[in-house]
Design brief:
The protein has 625 residues and is an alpha+beta fold. The protein contains 7 helices and 28 strands. The strands form 6 sheets. Strands 18, 20, 21, 23, 26 and 28 form a 6-stranded antiparallel sheet that branches. It is elongated and about 95 Å long. It binds 2-acetamido-2-deoxy-beta-D-glucopyranose, calcium ion (2 copies) and zinc ion. InterPro entries: Astacin-like_dom, ConA-like_dom_sf, MAM_dom, MAM_domain-containing, MetalloPept_cat_dom_sf, Peptidase_M12A, Peptidase_Metallo.
C-alpha cells in the first residue's frame, strides 16, 4: 500500500486519538504500535495535533529565549536545608483520580532516584510548577522560571504514556533534550533529508562552552531523547544511532543516567566537573560576601562585619558611626546613600560622620587603625564620599606607634560631589605605625563624610594596575572572533531585573563594562582582553568586582592566555549571585607574558547581564595588611 512506514505527524496521530486506551494494530509495514511509542513520540504527536509549534517540540519558550544551554544555572531550583532540591507543585483542576496517581508516581520516582523533592504548594509562592490537564498538548517550561506558577501541561495520552510525565517534569527540573548535546554527532547521525521542511531547527545542538554534558556519557536510553522518527517528513528515521541495534528514547521511566544527570547538576552526591574548586554555583542569592580585606589585625577594612579593630580617637569631639543597613545617612543632600563595596543600599556598611546637631563647626572625629607592623613600600587605598554644601575636611594622618608623632599624608577639603572617590597613598614604613582618618565638621549639617574599602597592599601605588572603565577601556580590547562585545555603560542596563544599576567605582556617574544579553541570536560569548602583562616570578593578584544578577545568568570566566596560545582557566563563576557588586581576588602565576581574558557566556535568556568593574592587578599574593 501507498502508506509510508510511519508518518508520525499524520497517521500516528490519527491512530493515537482513534484508539486511545487500546494498543493500535499493525498497518501493512507499519510495525509501530502504541506500546512502542516513546515518551517523546506521544508528546510530539499531542502537540502537533494541537497545532503547537514549540521549541524542540515541547518547550514553552521561544528558541530565542531558551538559548543553547542544557542547564541554565539561573534557572535552577533552590536547595532546602535538608540538601534536597525543592520544587513545589500544584495539581490544578481537571485531573482524574487516576491521573493524580500517575503524577504521584512520577514524584515518587524523582524522590526515589534523585535529590529532587516535589512537594505540594500550600501558599502562593514565587516559583512553583502548575500542573494543568490539557486537551491540546504536553509541554513544560525549561527550569525554574521564577514567575509564579509555571505551566506544565499534560494530556490523557501523555499521562498514560507515563514516561512523558517524567519527561516534562525533567524539563521543569532544568534539562533539554539528550540529542541536543554538543557531542551528539559522535553518537547519532541526524538525517536532515528526512526532516520536515521548517522543522530542522529542532535538531540544533548545543555549542560549547557550555558544561552541558556534565561529563556523563551520552544516553541513548534517556527519557529526554527524541525518538528515531521525530519530525520525520516521510516516515524514515531522522535520528540514527551510530551504535548498532541500540534503542533510543524511553517510555517507562528516567534512565539511571537521567537520574545521575539530575544529581550531578544539583551537586547531590557528585560534584560538577569542569568547575575549579571553590568557585562553584552559589545559590544563596542574598549572601553578602564580606570583603576578604576584613580582619581584626590589619589596616584593611570594608566595614562589612564591623570596625576591623579600628577605634575612636579619645581626644576628639565626636565619633564615627556605621550606617544602618538599608539606610542612607540620616540627613538629605549629604552623605553616601549606599555602601561602596556592594554598590547597594540593602547590602553592606561604610563608616561616616553625622554632621547634624549637636555637632558644631570645627568639631573633629578621629578613627584610629590597629597598629601595623608592615615595613617598606605599601599602597594604602580607600574610598571617600564628601557630598554636601557645608562639608568640612577629611585628613589621613600617619602616626608613629612608639612616639605618637603625627604626619598628615593626605587630605581633602570641602564638597567633592555625590559619589565615592578613590584615594591612594604611598606609605614606606620603617617602624610600627597607625593611620587615623580625621574628619572635621564644616559650617552646617550638610557635611556628612563617608569612608569605605580601606585596603593596604605591598608595593608602591604606581605598581598597581587599575582599570575603572570610567574614562575608557584602559587598553582592554574585544576578542574579534567571538560573538559579543563588552560595552561601557553608566547607570542601569537597559533590561530591568538584570545587570548592575550603577558604576562600582563611584557608585554613581562612572562607567562599568557589561555584555548586553537581550536580543542576542544564539551567539553566546564575549571576551574582553587586557593589555599584555609581563610574567612575574612572584605571580599576580588580580582583583575585580563583578555583578551577576538576573535569573538566567550564565558564566563569568577569567583565563590567562599567552602569545603561544597557552590558555588557562583561572576563575569561573556560574549563575546568579545577587543584586550587588561582589569582589573576586584571584592569584595567578603564568610562566610567560600573558593577557587576561574575561569571558561572559550569556545564560539561557535575556535576564543575564554580567557587569565587571575595577579590575586591578599587582605582583604578589592577594594578601592585604
Ligand atoms: C492550585 O490549584 C487549585 C485548583 O485549580 C487552585 O484553586 C489554587 O489556587 C492553586 N494554588 C495556587 C497556589 O496557585
Ligand atoms: Ca563597605
Ligand atoms: Ca567604574
Ligand atoms: Zn521535551
Amino acid at each position: 500500500m501507498a502508506v509510508l512506514k510511519l508518518v508520525v505527524c499524520a497517521c500516528l496521530l490519527g491512530l493515537l486519538h482513534q484508539v486511545r486506551g487500546t494498543p493500535f494494530g499493525r498497518d501493512g509495514n507499519n510495525d509501530i504500535s502504541w506500546e512502542d511509542l516513546t515518551a517523546f513520540d506521544v508528546i510530539l504527536a499531542e502537540n502537533e495535533a494541537a497545532g503547537l509549534d514549540l521549541f524542540e517540540g515541547d518547550i514553552l519558550d521561544s528558541a530565542d529565549q531558551v538559548r543553547n544551554a542544557i542547564q541554565c544555572t539561573g534557572r535552577m531550583w533552590p536547595k532546602g536545608p535538608d540538601g534536597l532540591v525543592k520544587i513545589p507543585y500544584n495539581i490544578t483542576e481537571g485531573f482524574t483520580d487516576e491521573d493524580v496517581v500517575a503524577l504521584q508516581r512520577a514524584f515518587h520516582e524523582y524522590a526515589h532516584k534523585t535529590c529532587v523533592d516535589f512537594f505540594p504548594v500550600t501558599t502562593q509562592l514565587d516559583a512553583f510548577v502548575s500542573l494543568e490537564k490539557s486537551d491540546s498538548g504536553c509541554n513544560s517550561k525549561f527550569g525554574n522560571m521564577k514567575d509564579g506558577g509555571q505551566k506544565l501541561a499534560l494530556t490523557d495520552s501523555c499521562i498514560r504514556r507515563y514516561g512523558s510525565v517524567v519527561h516534562e517534569l525533567m524539563h521543569a527540573v532544568g534539562f533539554k533534550h539528550e540529542q541536543a548535546r554538543p557531542d551528539r554527532d559522535s553518537y547519532v547521525t541526524i538525517v536532515w533529508g528526512n526532516i520536515r521542511d521548517g522543522k530542522e531547527n529542532n535538531f540544533n545542538k548545543e555549542s560549547e562552552p557550555v558544561v552541558s554534558t556534565l561529563d556523563l556519557p551520552y544516553d541513548f536510553g534517556s527519557v529526554m531523547h527524541y525518538s528515531r522518527t521525530a519530525f520525520t517528513s516521510n516516515g524514515q528515521d531522522t535520528i540514527v544511532p551510530k551504535v548498532p541495534n541500540v534503542q533510543i528514547g524511553q517510555r517507562d521511566q528516567m534512565s539511571d543516567l537521567d537520574a545521575l544527570k539530575i544529581n550531578t547538576l544539583y551537586g547531590c552526591g557528585r560534584t560538577v566537573t569542569g568547575v575549579p574548586t571553590g568557585t562553584g554555583v552559589d545559590m544563596s542569592a542574598n549572601f553578602v560576601q564580606a570583603s576578604r580585606a576584613d580582619s581584626d589585625r590589619t589596616i584593611s577594612c570594608a566595614f562589612e562585619s564591623g570596625w576591623c579593630g579600628y577605634t575612636q580617637d579619645t581626644a576628639d569631639d565626636f565619633d564615627w558611626v556605621l550606617n544602618e543597613l538599608g539606610e542612607a545617612t540620616p540627613s538629605g543632600n549629604t552623605g553616601p546613600d549606599h555602601d561602596h563595596s556592594t554598590g547597594e543600599k540593602a547590602h553592606g556598611h561604610f563608616a561616616f560622620i553625622e554632621a547634624s546637631s549637636p555637632r558644631q563647626n570645627g568639631d573633629f572625629a578621629g578613627l584610629l587603625s590597629p597598629v601595623s607592623t608592615a615595613r617598606g613600600p605599601h599602597c594604602l587605598k580607600f574610598y571617600y564620599h564628601m557630598f554636601g554644601a557645608e562639608t568640612g575636611s577629611l585628613d589621613l594622618l600617619y602616626i608613629d606607634a612608639r612616639s605618637g608623632g603625627k604626619n598628615r599624608i593626605w587630605w581633602k577639603i570641602g564638597e567633592q560631589g555625590d559619589f565615592w572617590l578613590e584615594a591612594r597613598v604611598d606609605i614606606d614604613a620603617q617602624a610600627d605605625f597607625q593611620v587615623m582618618f580625621e574628619a572635621m565638621r564644616g559650617h552646617g549639617y550638610h557635611g556628612d563624610i563617608g569612608i569605605d574599602d580601606i585596603e593596604m597592599v605591598a608595593g608602591t601605588c604606581d605598581s598597581i594596575h587599575h582599570c575603572d572603565f570610567d574614562a575608557d577601556f584602559c587598553g582592554f580590547q574585544q576578542l574579534a572572533t567571538d560573538q559579543l562585545d563588552w560595552v561601557r555603560n553608566t547607570g542601569h542596563t537597559p533590561s530591568a531585573t538584570t545587570g548592575p544599576d550603577r558604576d562600582h567605582t563611584t557608585g554613581s556617574s562612572g562607567h562599568y563594562v557589561y555584555v548586553e544579553a537581550s536580543s542576542q541570536d544564539r551567539s553566546d560569548l564575549g571576551t574582553l582582553i587586557s593589555p599584555e602583562i609581563p610574567a612575574s616570578t612572584s605571580g599576580y593578584c588580580v582583583t575585580f568586582w563583578y555583578h551577576m544578577y538576573g535569573r538566567d545568568t550564565g558564566f563569568l570566566r577569567m583565563r590567562t592566555v599567552d602569545r603561544h596560545g597557552h590558555d588557562q582557566l583561572e576563575y569561573e563563576l556560574i549563575g546568579e549571585q545577587g543584586d550587588l557588586w561582589k569582589r573576586a581576588d584571584v592569584f595567578i602565576n603564568p610562566a610567560t607574558d600573558f593577557r587576561l581574558h574575561f569571558q561572559d557566556y550569556i545564560g539561557c535568556y535575556a535576564y543575564s547581564d554580567i557587569g565587571l568593574d575595577d579590575i586591578e592587578w599587582r605582583a604578589g599574593r592577594c594578601d592585604t595588611v
